[in-house]
């Protein structure tokens, strides 16, 4: 078959629709330069196995470099008849060097080990870029948390006022999952450090090529231990899709809060002009589109992961063409996060927090009730009864339309004989916050420590 990587045993070419189905250059071309890097390493392996002379190697490497330039500057692109990135580049090399030399490079390798290697090379680079983007978001959260240290807000469970917390504590609670995502990336990069090159179609090669040397040439720590696994496994691609989806989910959760906080009813934040959008009809609008796109795209990232997992389920060993479907989902997840991460970092880093409003709401909704119960426990009242008494205090307040911190000494006496006037001292937001002073707690001193710990972690990752 002319220009195809196979065809010797075929009397005719593929049907048009067969070719259209098979073709992957429209998405795998982005791996072209990695494919050429693989070709350089493979050429050197062929030379070491004495399957190429020194002159042939030199000429081949020259050709690969020229082709690489043409790929980089867009001079060489896939033709309509090219099936995939590998075939297109072999055609390009043969056009430059002739079929005698250009046709030698395919010995001892298969598109199966090539593609498995290329996706790893690509993931290693892209995950680094994604990690930088995640670090920017963590930096934005950390920057705000540093500036806002000391400002209280209502902490919520079930979206209901629960206990006062520091805004910084809350913001850092969004930073930690992202720091763990960075840790996940670092961990995955360690697993991605094995090269499948040399696995060939599935069983390895009979040509005496050294997979370890090719691995080292390509910057991998080692080569895969099992050539069948090397060509057929896609768990690492799926893991990448998971980490990317998890990052999307973590961005979505903080985004949802920004959306709520920027509503008229909350009034906690104002979005910067440059990170919000207007309405084509309503002149007053300032919309949190960045946050909404983050929330929306996270659904797409989950879809990419689940689609890939479904493709892999039940696939027998070794390579099956189904595996060609692994690339678009993970390419898309990376593309989406590359766009999204800087925007979310921009959005978060430029939020204006309305600290008086947040502080004012912090004690409302009886969020100091636990402090009443805890005060009773310190007076040796069993917690079950303390809970009852604090609940009675809430009911008392609710009936009179006041908050716990508004109670007077005579109110206290009326609620329960076990409550003394000293309880009024704990009924303050700052008292409530600074009393929670165990590691990880919302006390100002602890959150200040947490800021350092998060900064250190960010530095390490
Ligand atoms: N394009 C394929 C993929 O992405 C690699 C080529 C392997 N094709 C084959 N017929 N063995 O997985």
Automatic annotation (TrEMBL):
Catalytic activity: 2-(N(omega)-L-arginino)succinate = fumarate + L-arginine
KW Cytoplasm (keyword) present: yes
Domain annotation Argininosuccinate lyase C-terminal: ranges: 366-433
Entry keyword annotation includes Magnesium: no
One GO CC term, this protein: cytosol
Broad class of enzyme this protein falls into: lyase
Pathway assigned to this chain's UniProt record: Amino-acid biosynthesis; L-arginine biosynthesis; L-arginine from L-ornithine and carbamoyl phosphate: step 3/3
GO biological process, alphabetically ordered: L-arginine biosynthetic process via ornithine
Localisation: Cytoplasm
Keywords of this entry: Amino-acid biosynthesis, Arginine biosynthesis, Cytoplasm, Lyase
Residues of the Fumarate lyase N-terminal domain: 15-303
Family annotation (InterPro entries): Arg_succ_lyase_C, Argininosuccinate_lyase, Fumarase/histidase_N, Fumarate_lyase_CS, Fumarate_lyase_fam, Fumarate_lyase_N, L-Aspartase-like
Pfam families found in the cross-reference section: ASL_C2, Lyase_1
Record-listed E.C. numbers: 4.3.2.1
GO MF terms, alphabetically ordered: argininosuccinate lyase activity
Xref: PANTHER family: ARGININOSUCCINATE LYASE
Family under the similarity heading: Belongs to the lyase 1 family. Argininosuccinate lyase subfamily.
Name used for this protein in its record: Argininosuccinate lyase
Taxonomic path: Bacteria, Bacillati, Actinomycetota, Actinomycetes, Propionibacteriales
